[in-house]
Every structure is written in C-alpha cells, then in structure tokens.
Amino acid sequence: MNRKVTSLDVAARAGVSQSAVSRVFSGASASQRTVDAVREAADHLGYRPNVVARSLITGRSKIIGLVVAYLDNAFYPDALERFSNELQAQGYHILIFMAHGTTSDIDRVVADLLDHQVDGIIAASVGLSDALTDRCRGLNIPVVLFNRGDADPSLPQVTSANFAGGQKVAKYLVQAGYQRIAHISGWSGSKTGQDRAEGFADGLVKAGSQLIAQVDGMYKREVAAAAAQDLVQTYAVDAIFVGNDHMAFAVLDHLRFEMGLSVPDDVAIVGYDDVPMAAWSAFDLTTVRQPSGRMVQATVYMLLALIEGEENLAPKHEIDGELIIRGSTRALEQEA
Amino acid sequence: MNRKVTSLDVAARAGVSQSAVSRVFSGASASQRTVDAVREAADHLGYRPNVVARSLITGRSKIIGLVVAYLDNAFYPDALERFSNELQAQGYHILIFMAHGTTSDIDRVVADLLDHQVDGIIAASVGLSDALTDRCRGLNIPVVLFNRGDADPSLPQVTSANFAGGQKVAKYLVQAGYQRIAHISGWSGSKTGQDRAEGFADGLVKAGSQLIAQVDGMYKREVAAAAAQDLVQTYAVDAIFVGNDHMAFAVLDHLRFEMGLSVPDDVAIVGYDDVPMAAWSAFDLTTVRQPSGRMVQATVYMLLALIEGEENLAPKHEIDGELIIRGSTRALEQEA
DNA sequence: CTGAAAGCGCTAACAT
DNA sequence: ATGTTAGCGCTTTCAG
C-alpha cells in the first residue's frame, strides 16, 4: 500500500525545504533550479498536493455548492452540465445537492454545504429561508439564485426576462387570432412562475384580449395535464400558455393521446424554456427560449465576483429570451 | 463580519476543554452535563464543526466523486438524483464531474477528484485509463463502475443484465413475427453496448432468425437517426432494436416525421433503459427496463463496503431487467 | 530566493 | 469522563 506522499517527502528528495515545495505548487516565486528539482521529485514520487490541507489554511475550498430541485425537467441537467464546465474552467468544483423538498429540507442541505466550507452557493430553482440567507451573509458566503427570482431584489439572482417573456407569448397568440386563451402557470409560490403569469395577463390586456382562466400547474406533469383537460372541457379554450416546457409536454401528450384532440388545430400550446426536446418533431413546441448558456455564464460570473469580494455588483440580472414559433401553434397571419 | 466560530470558542463558553467539544460533535462519549453545556454554547454562538479540518485529520472526506458523461440521456439525471439521495442518507456528499471527453480528459478529472481526497469514485458511463485505475488502487480509493462494464471482471461494476436483455428483445421480436430485424447498437467501445448487441444477435439465432444488419449508433441521436433511415431504405427492415432509449427517441421521430413512416406498422422500434419518457404517449416505446433504483442502491452499497475495507465482495453485480412491451411494437400473437 | 517556525480547526492517543 | 498534547499537510509570515 503506497503510503500517502507529502510535500515533506518531495522536499527531502529534491533537497529543498518543505516550504519550497509548497511555493512551487501554489505558484509562488521560486528559482528555476528549485522548480525543476521539485517537479522531478514530485513526478517521481507521484506527489499531488492535498487540497484539503490547503483549504484548511487558506479558508477557501474552491468548491461551489449547487442546490437543484428538479432534474426531471430537462432544463436543469442542461444547466448543470454548463455549470460544471464553466466552473471547472475556473478551477472550481461542484458539490451537488438535490432538494426536492420543503424549505426546512433545503435549509438542512445548505447548512451541510456551509459545513463543507463551500466558497459560494448556487440555488437553482429553490428558495432559501431568510434565516439561512442571513447565515450565509454572516459567514460571507455568497449565494446566487439561478432561474429563481426573489421578492427581495437585493439578493443576487439570474433569471430570464420572465415578465417580458409572458408578454411576448400573449401578443403573439392574440395576433395569431386565438380568442379563448388560458394559462397553466408555474408554481405560484415561485417568483419566476408569477412573473411569467403576470406578464402574460398584462400582454393579453395590452393586446386587447384577456385571460379566460388560469390554473397553477405546480411544475408537475400530472397537475398540468389535468388542468389542460379542465380548461378545454369547461372553458373551451383555443390556446394555452403553459408555464414551462416540462409541463407543456405533458399537456401535449394528454390532449393528443388521451383526449384525441389536435394540436394546434383544436388547441394551441405554448411552453417556456426551449429545452432541446421542444425542437423534437414529436413535440415541435412553440416556446420562449431561456438562453441557459448565457444564464449560467452570468451566474458564474456574478458568483465569482462576489467571492472575490466585489461590492458594487448589480444583484439582479435578467436575460432576454426570444419566442420560438413552431408547430404547436398556428403560424402568424402574414402582414398585409 | 461574524468571525468564524471555532470549537475553542465553544469550549470557553461552556467551561470545558476543546476536546470535550470535539467529542460531543463527533459522537464520542461524554457526560450529559458536558453535552448540554456544549450544545448550549454551540447554539448560542452558531458553531458548526469545520468538516475540512476533520477530513484533514481523519483522512476521510465523506465525499464521493461522481463522474458522468451524458446528462442529455435522461437515464443519468435520474440516476444522479437517486445517487444524491442514497448517499446523502449515508452522510456522504457528491462532488460532480462532467466528462464528455477523451480518456485524457477523464483522467484529468479523476486526478482532480483524487486531489480532493474523495473517499470513493463512481464512474457512470465513462472509462478510466488503466493508469488511473492503478493509482486509485494505490491510494486505496475504491472505484465502482456504474452502467459500464469492463473487460476486467475484477473491477467493481454494476450493470443490468445486458446480454440477457438483448436476448429478451430478440426472442420477443421473433415471436411477434418480425422477419427483417436490425440493430443500432450503443457505442461499440462500451462493454454495455457490446453486451446488448451480442445478446441480441445470440437471441436472434437461438430463436431461428438472424441479424439483417447492425450499425454503431455511438449513443448519438443524429447518428442513430441516419442509421435508421439507411436500415429502412437499404435493408427494408421491419424491426430495429436500438441500443438505448435516448437514441430510440431520435429514431422514432425521424421515421415518423422525416420519413413519414408508421411505427409500429412499417417498422417496429425497441429501446433499452425505460427512462420515464419511454412511457409518454408521444413515444410509447417498447424497451428493456434498467432498474436504476436498484442499480444505484447496489452501487452505493458496494462502494461503501469497499470504503469500509470490505475485502470479499463480488465485484461484478448484474441486475435483471424486464422487457416492457408498449405501442412501438405490435403485440405478441396470442398463444394458441 | 529560501528555510525555519507558526499555525489553520480539528481528532486521537494518552494520562489523569 | 475529561483535559493535555501532539499532530493531519499545507500556506504564510518572518528572517536571513
């Protein structure tokens, strides 16, 4: 059993002091002679610095905690992959936590994260309690909300322009000639869902129409599917804006295969996110694109700046997303 | 700024020694009096033990490195979620690495993991170089391959019964009356893909049929879709077994919407994995279920046992998966 | 530029 | 059961 090789072993073999070894591996200045000798010895012995010891003394772990709620919504695995790449490129690693639960659940998880001395936290689509937010602030550990707004605009957060996105959908549906328009919203407890819903209602009114009905889809497939059925049967809607693609796929399936309706001929469906699947022919879903690449970049940038101690940073970052028109809605009438 | 609270501060306030505090938080024995005093002081000061310091001295980080390649294949986000739950329940956390790359890429990533003193590594669907495998062994860090076999059966690995799964599909397709059967395999460089392909070919022969053609789908949607088109046009196949659901969805879409064919009337499609989407009406895919819950449990169990120093453990664990018959193939003819 | 020495916050003998 | 002591492997003053 290869006992663990320490910087002391390397120092002995290279004929230098242990601190010289440390300098070489932490990029501090050293003469070429020293560097060469240390490198040779390290390679020979298979030495690699122990980052745990390093973290203990520097107080930084180079680890980012990522809390994420829904991995069954394809938007998040996609974002996770981008986060991993982006952060790895900056020398950070991701400690991951799934938190599909209550606030207290999430708090426990984040407390764990804190114990691990993470340098920063990304909360993807989950809310943190005020107590926890305070604690992070007390420990000077930055938290950035990803795809999750907060009522408190001073909390660092990155979202797409949800209100504007909702408006875009409204304007388009009205222009396309739909008359009885409903909305299956994202969970009303989430700012993101609220904003989309409010933007949609606002856009409808501004376009001279109005919302026939609105139901909370809770970000759940079954809830959304049942809501869609009700909307069609009870309100005879001809278009439904669904709060995200994840639910929209369920609605599409239910309408087509359970109810035998045609989309878009009987009912038009619009989603939100433009996850890769939305472009698949089986769905061909009209949706608002959330540019996850840019959202992730903004989040990472913001988080690292905060870690570096940046003070004057606009905490709220909204990224615009365009409406992608596909076959789940009828095409816009040609301009005269 | 709340300076960091250490066990020393707690000790001072509780009127006990620092080691008493340590004992209380690491679960060693202590009198009720001490425990109470320490708890009170800790709560008051907001103390939490620093796990980095603990790791440094115990030599265990309670962190598991998870290396994963394809998050766009829904099987993996699902597994990730299960891993997270399972491991969290055991007091472990997941340091995640995305490695969609070459071997050298993966090696760099795992070297990184090793630097972080992870207690164990789960390699989901990626191969590690021999050099790295050796290094892990040298450092006594267990590695378990998840959904990824290896030519070396002494490497701990958890897979479904891929060969048997391929056989099941073959037997079923022949019994259902298909005559011209082809296979779009998973990447031939992966043991998993190979085993399914070999089992399929074997099953076909045993059922008195044979493989008309086989193409490597590389686990890529586009490759699989193009292969399917070729198979239909050049070989006039009436059934295709696709190496996993991820590719099968692409094939289904391409056949139906690009080529205007009917599945299953013109061509039958079978996948492998039974990811949640396979059950959606839009796909309704016949497939072999990989019981990801049980696979994850087996992997975690094996990994933790290895970490605890367990020696006599069967390294290879295969979990049986049943064939789920849905609408992408015609139903079996009734037994006479 | 380099070595010696002092810790980072904690656990683990070892005494008491 | 509890306090004392000695580190875990490294970074970081501080002299030289």
Describe the structure.
- Two copies of one chain form a homodimer.
- With 336 residues, the first copy, chain A, is an alpha/beta fold.
- The first copy, chain A, folds into three domains: 7-49, no CATH class; 63-160 and 292-319, Rossmann fold, CATH 3.40.50.2300; 162-290 and 323-335, Response regulator (Rossmann fold, 3-Layer(aba) Sandwich).
- Chain A contains twelve helices and twelve strands.
- Chain A has helices at 7-14, 18-25, 32-45, 51-58, 75-89, 103-115, 130-139, 162-175, 191-206, 221-235, 245-258, 292-307; strands spanning 63-68, 93-98, 120-124, 143-146, 157-160, 181-185, 211-216, 239-242, 268-273, 286-289, 316-319, 323-324.
- The first copy, chain A, has a six-stranded parallel β-sheet, sandwiched between helices. Chain A has a six-stranded mixed β-sheet with strand order 7-6-8-9-10-12, with helices on both faces.
- In chain A, strand 8 (239-242), helix 11 and strand 9 form a beta-alpha-beta unit.
- The longest helix of chain A has 16 residues, at 191-206.
- Chain A starts with 6 loop residues before the first helix and ends in a 12-residue tail after the last strand.
- The mean pLDDT of chain A is 92.
- At the A-B interface, helix 4, helix 5, strand 2, helix 6 and helix 7 of A face helix 4, helix 5, strand 2, helix 6 and helix 11 of B.
- Strand 2 of chain A pairs antiparallel with strand 2 (93-98) of chain B.
- The structure holds a DNA duplex (16 and 16 nucleotides).
